[in-house]
Amino acid sequence: MQIFYEPEILTNGGVLNEEESKHCIKVLRHKAGDQIHVINGRGTRVLGTITEASPKACSIKIDQTETAEPDAPACHIAIAPTKSIDRFEWFLEKSTELGVDKVTPLLCHQSERRQIKLPRLERVITAATKQCLRLWRPEIDELTNIKKFLEADHPGKYKFIAHCMEGERRELISELTKNSAKEDVLILIGPEGDFSPEEVNMAVKNGFVPVVMGKNRLRTETAGIAACLSVKMAEYYK
């Protein structure tokens, strides 16, 4: 099934944006009369018939509409982007496939990457959303200083910080199975040099529970994937 993404498909008269129109008409060679699927990224997928095969503004007549509620609990991963942007893009792709709902790139004391190109990362998420047939497209924030992030209010969330320092840390998967109220889950993943002691202490003071994800030390992007998968599997096996 070929999926196209147009966030305003229900309100703009059934017109695809220029990027999706070009891909539909020029690359995939669709023509008037063909049926295509379009998602808005907010829980709706439509089946429509192409009425105007323009590579700049492909128009469709909506024939069927399907809706879905977002998964509960929602999974929010706040993670320091890796030095290699390819590895961070891999994380975004795979976490989208696994069901992440929101990603916040964090700027930490030991971050090796201190800037991101958000439009490119948005495109990675969009492509992954279409590929895995999701109706809800994950959100991604601008790069956010961890202090500012920790000082912000995150109501109604199970909050965790995964780090490698000595001290009391709980098993993430065990903690997630206690989430009987299906509260949204927020997990912090640090940079390749880990969080600083000050960042960990600040997180704990703001209600984040220190956790581990197994006995092995994980790369940042692997930890992000493991965290997302833990949220989904804990809910699946309840």
From TrEMBL:
NCBIfam families: PRK11713.6-1, RsmE family RNA methyltransferase. Its main location: cytoplasm. It catalyses: uridine(1498) in 16S rRNA + S-adenosyl-L-methionine = N(3)-methyluridine(1498) in 16S rRNA + S-adenosyl-L-homocysteine + H(+). One of its GO terms (cellular component) is cytoplasm. This is Ribosomal RNA small subunit methyltransferase E. It is an enzyme of class 2 (transferase). CDD domains: RsmE-like. One of its GO terms (biological process) is rRNA base methylation. Residues 16-62 form the Ribosomal RNA small subunit methyltransferase E PUA-like domain. It comes from the Bacteria. Specifically methylates the N3 position of the uracil ring of uridine 1498 (m3U1498) in 16S rRNA. Acts on the fully assembled 30S ribosomal subunit. It is found in: Cytoplasm. PANTHER family: 16S RRNA (URACIL(1498)-N(3))-METHYLTRANSFERASE, RIBOSOMAL RNA SMALL SUBUNIT METHYLTRANSFERASE E. Residues 74-229 form the Ribosomal RNA small subunit methyltransferase E methyltransferase domain. Belongs to the RNA methyltransferase RsmE family.
